[in-house]
Amino acid sequence: MRYIAIFIDPVKSCNLKCKMCYFSDDKKRPKPTTPIDINNIDKYKTLFKRAAKLQIGCGAEPTIYKHLAELIQKGKEYGIPYIEITTNG
Ligand code: SF4
Ranges for the Radical SAM core domain (predicted)? Predict the structure, then answer.
């Protein structure tokens, strides 16, 4: 059986500017984008239902996303067995 791992940066920003990171570089800093709309998560239920892992935070800071708890709850509702958050906190 194949499994799916979902990697999400719910926001594309960070509260820090570490020297080695693109968030400290004016030329390479990702342009701010609209945060993931928590109300749209169910559009991806086909993926969520089959996922073995939900990784929240890949190249930005997920704890500044105001719907983080709801995103985790969605993962739980879809039965994702492994939910991980990578944070600078
Ligand atoms: S994303 Fe990570 S490395 Fe980059 S500024 Fe934020 S905490 Fe630092």
Answer: 12-89
DSSP secondary structure letters along 52-80 = EEEEE-SSS-GGG-TTHHHHHHHHHHTT-
Q: Which domain holds residue 60?
A: 4-85
Number of structural domains found in the chain? 1
- Assigned token pair, 40: 């749209």
pLDDT value at residue 76: 98
The rounded Å distance from CA 39 to ligand 1 centre is: 27
Structure tokens at 29: 């800093």
10 Å CB burial of residue 61 (0-12, 13-18, 19+) is buried
Ligand 1 atom at minimal distance to the Cα of residue 21? 4
